[in-house]
Every structure is written in C-alpha cells, then in structure tokens.
Amino acid sequence: MANSDGIGDSGFRFGNGRLCFTFTATLGDRGAPVPLERLAVPGDLARWCVEAGLLDETPPAGAAALAGARRLREAIDRAAERVRTGASPGPQDAEILNDWAARPALAPQLDATGGLGWRQEGAQVRHVLALVARDAVDVLTGPMRSRLRRCAGPDCDGLFVDVSRPGNRRWCSMNTCGNRVKKAAYRQRHAQSG
C-alpha cells in the first residue's frame, strides 16, 4: 500500500496517474548514471502486483515473468518517449505492447465501497501485465497523448500524463520529485543567506 508520498511498502512509486507509468517507475532514477532497479528479483514483481492494488494475494512469479515484465516496461517507456516527441512507437516496441495487450487481462469490478477493483479467476502476473499494456495503448493512442511529459526532477526522468489545466506540470509527483526540488531550493536559499 502506498503512503501519502506515493511510495509503497517495497519502495515502489505510485500516484503518477496512470498504471502504465506507475509500472515504468519500477526502474527509478532513469536520469541517474545508475538507475534504480525496483524489479530486481521475481518476488519484487509479485509484490508490485499486490502493492499496485491489482491482486489481493502475492502471485507466483519466476525468472521468465520478470524478464517479460522488464521487456514490457522498457517498450512502454521507449514508445511513450517517441509519442511524446511526435513520432510513432518503434515497430518492435509496438509488437511487444500489442502482444501483451491481446492477452487476457484483469477485469474491472466495483468493490465493496463502490470503487474500482480488479478480478480474474486464477489471476497471475501475466493478467496484470496485460492490463498494464492495455493502459499504455490507451494512453499512447488517446487524447492524452499530447500531454505526455518527462519529470523534471533531478535524476527521475519518469513519465507522466499532465492533467493540469494549463498543461505545464513539471514533476511526475509533487509529493516526491516536486517536494525534493522545492526543499533543495529552500536549503540553497538559506545557505546563501546564512
């Protein structure tokens, strides 16, 4: 479960607005010399499925599932970057996205509180990844494609959809990257004045 800063129990980043970009954030600090791999072992992928609120129980996940998940994650990131800059997704990335999106996915359900829940008989990691791919296809082909942005936070470089009215949001999350930038600027101002 994510805390108020959008950070899950295992250090996953949530709260950037779209499932597909929450998933691409499993590789953190993309702009840093050494990015932070949050899907280091198959168990991390299984935990992400639960912490993202897509599965109630930790599913089995093996090395093949992890490798497939990482390929999908990077295909989403590359395709979104191309769309963001006005190009079409590369053919290999489109093929990966289309392959995953065509697979059986979790089905949306009303939960007990009237909110959104997910269900799939015998749900596995592959059902979650199919849902992630469908979300990516929706973003990359829908009206929000012109609102794709890269975070301006130092080292973050994460993707997000800017849903602000003026369309000039700079950070994937105000609670994480935006807050870090503002704190750093505050410290710098006070260091210079002291």
Structure description:
By secondary structure, this protein is mostly helical. It has a domain at 19-145. 44% of the residues lie in helices and 9% in strands. It contains six helices and six strands. It has helices spanning 19-24, 42-51, 63-84, 91-101, 125-141, 174-193, and strands spanning 27-28, 36-37, 107-110, 116-119, 148-150, 159-161. The strands form three sheets. The chain has a two-stranded antiparallel ribbon with strand order 1-2. A two-stranded antiparallel ribbon has the order 3-4. The protein has a two-stranded antiparallel ribbon with strand order 5-6. A hairpin with an 8-residue loop joins strand 5 and strand 6 (159-161). Helix 3 (63-84) crosses helix 4, helix 3 (63-84) packs parallel to helix 5 and helix 4 crosses helix 5. Mean pLDDT is 86; it is low at 1-6.
